[in-house]
Amino acid sequence: MRKHLIAATFTALAGVGSAAAEDYPTKPITFVVPFAAGGPLDSLARAIAEPMSADLGQPIIIENVAGAGGSIGVGRVVHAAPDGHTVGVGNWSTHVLNGAIYALPYNLIDDLTSVALLPSAPQLIVAKSSLPATNFRELVTWLQSNRANVGTAGVGSASHVSGLLFQNIARTELAFVSYRSAGAALQDLVAGHIDLMFDQASNSMPQIRADAIKAFAVTSNSRLGVAPDIPTVDEAGLPGFYISVWNGLWVPKGTEPDVIARLNAAAVKVMATPALQKRFAELGQDRPAPEQVSPAALRAFQKAEIDKWWPILKAAHIKAN
């Protein structure tokens, strides 16, 4: 009799989980962006939130939780209820780099569940319009005799780590200035308050088109279709300095697989719409290939990136202060 009761209890609990997944979502969904509003990750989250909201049938609210290179916002997702109503929007810096730079109170792989890979973008080496250099080699020469102020989205961010790696390779000494987002740093670059940024193409392109800042190189092995005049780092004189900032969606560990599948399907669907494909192209972002967008593919990719970048960061002695 006891065995029958236990079996019935498990069956009932399984039914509750299945029903919850079928009804999902039952209330507004929160997208946690671990940086202040106005940066490239925030812009991407807002671009996909509206069409995903329409597909899911519930509003999607953007919550900006900045601090500690994005690690505070990621922690907010780790400790949220695993019901699919809190979704983390993160990237290469928050879900790879931070694990090597900060003593995190959570595990980036085990305490979160992958949902979907989002578009990625290379970075651009950009400077204020009044900086005297006219090409990359002149920029390096200028940097070697001048201590430039470099804007970043905080310690451990993609912009910060890129600058540190560049500093080591180019044998320059840079002064890093932390902001709450790359968007805020870019505003000061346009105003001439800082000298340089290693910024995502999606963030810098509008200001480059407006001639408000200078672009010296793109951190990839091919030129951007939207900016074919900007040389690659190979062409500019910094061969192999390839950095692509990829983005993704995560939920707390323990979230129902059916809920994850529903979120994944919505993200994949909206990324394929002509309107978003056009927007991604205009910002120099690459939509992930079909075989890269599953939860399992993002998890495998994230682990591979950790295996690649953690030894590099540790060898360069890159740590949060």
Description:
It is a single chain. By secondary structure, the protein is an alpha/beta fold. Helices cover 46% and strands 19% of the residues. Helix 2 packs across helix 10 (257-271) and helix 4 (92-101) crosses helix 12 (295-315). The chain has helices at residues 2-23, 40-56, 71-78, 92-101, 136-145, 158-170, 182-191, 201-209, 233-236, 257-271, 274-282, 295-315; strands at 29-33, 60-64, 86-91, 112-128, 149-152, 175-178, 196-200, 213-218, 244-252. It has 12 helices and 9 strands.
**Relative helix content:** 40-55%
Overall outline: globular
**What is the CA-CA span between the terminal residues?**
61 Å
Instruction: Name the poorly predicted regions.
Output: 1-10
Order of helices and strands: HEHEHEHEHEHEHEHEHEHHH
| Number of extended strands | 9
Q: Please count the helical segments.
A: 12
Q: In the residues, how many domains can be counted?
A: 2
CATH superfamily of the largest domain: Bordetella uptake gene, domain 1
Mean pLDDT: 92
User: Using only CA atoms, what is the Rg?
Assistant: 21 Å
